[in-house]
Structures are given as structure tokens and as C-alpha cells.
């Protein structure tokens, strides 16, 4: 399968050949859904907490005598029935980690990439680079590629400080290394902008080897 490659100025470059098992399969929507659910669950910190009656400060002394005042008996002011008392069955810290087989995770990413290529939402550039870490430089790059105002996931071959710093103040622009992009990253955008070298690395990583 061949994909067209653009230069940074927007002019057409030479085409690049990619593996059909990565960019030309029938998308498996069920696996994509499972992958997204797992990734979002794994991103949760799980640090929410509330204090039960043993964790609330104070309340060690019995507030009043068991009998004689005509009121219900009470052993502590930190009872859940009292104002300022502990919480019954409140949230407690726990993990949300969801495991998913490696083959399914890769199939999910291949499915999204194939769908993007089929819909024409995949833009390949020979190189993504800016001379200085300025937002204006990255804006000019997007303008040359006619991608202004789009929600874009930019996949680069390796960490480039100028590119990351230039794009971080732009709304709806997310830059990450191609081999580190998750299924959710590939889905949560209108356009996938991929550097040619990053495309080759992604193709090598996800291709089905016989």
C-alpha cells in the first residue's frame, strides 16, 4: 500500500510504501473499544478516599453517660450518625488497572490507522521540524499543510524539543513519539500528522510478521 508524502511547505513529495497489515485491514471496532476502555481505566490514579469512623480525629472519650439523660446512648462523637463523624462505605484508594493481550492492543492500533488511511485523515510529512521553539513557527507549518483549526495528533520519530515546545501552547495539538502513541491518542483527533521516519517505525512495530 502506498501513502502520499507532503513536504513541509505543502508541496507534494514522493510516495511511501507501507504494510497492508498495518494500514489496510478491516477495522475491528470491538477490539478498539476494549483498548480505549482499558487505556482510560489505566490512566486513573485511584487515589480518592474518605475517612471512616476510625480515621476521623478525636472521639476517643464517651461523650456522655450511658443512662440518665433521656437521650440515645452514644460511644463516640465520631459515629457516622453525628455531624463530623466518619463516612460509611465511602470511596477508598484502589487500582483500576485493566490488562489486555499484546496482540489485541496492536490490532486496535492497526484498526485505527487503517480507518484513518481509508478516510483520508492520515497526513504524512517528510519531516517535522522548526528552527526555533516558537509557537508561530509551528503555526506556520500547519498553515502550509492547510491544517489550521484542526484537532491534530502529531507523531514524530523521536523527541524534538523545539517541536514539543512550539506546539504545547496550541489548543487541540498533541505531540508524541510515533511508537508510543496509544489507541486513544490515534482516535482522539481529527487528523493524524505523521513524520515519514515515524511512519516507518510505526509500520515496523505493528506489521504482522509471518
How would you describe this structure to a colleague?
- It is built from seven helices and seven strands.
- The chain is elongated, with a radius of gyration of 27 Å.
- Strand 5, helix 5 and strand 6 form a beta-alpha-beta unit.
- By secondary structure, it is α/β, with parallel strands linked by helices.
Output the keywords.
210 residues; alpha/beta; Ribosomal Protein L4, Chain: A; five-stranded parallel sheet; two-stranded antiparallel ribbon; 12% strand
Brief summary of the model shown:
The protein is an alpha/beta fold and 210 residues long. Helix content is 33%, strand content 12%.
CATH architecture of the largest domain: 3-Layer(aba) Sandwich
The CATH topology of the largest domain is Ribosomal Protein L4, Chain: A
Taking pLDDT < 50 over at least 5 consecutive residues as the criterion, the unreliable ranges are none
How far is the first residue's CA from the last residue's CA? 18 Å
Fourth-tier CATH superfamily name of the largest domain: Ribosomal protein L4/L1
Globular, elongated, flat, extended or rod-shaped: what is the shape?
Answer: elongated
Structural class: alpha/beta
Domains (count): 2
Strand element count = 7
Q: Describe the sheet with the most strands.
A: 5 strands, parallel
Give the helix proportion (percent range).
25-40%
Query: What gyration radius follows from the Cα positions, in whole Å?
Result: 27 Å
Order of helices and strands: EEEHHHEHEHEHEH
Mean pLDDT reading: 91
User: Could you give the order of strands across the largest sheet?
Assistant: 2-4-7-5-6
What top-tier CATH class of the largest domain fits best? Alpha Beta
Could you tell me the strand content as a percent range? 5-15%
User: How large is the count of helical segments?
Assistant: 7
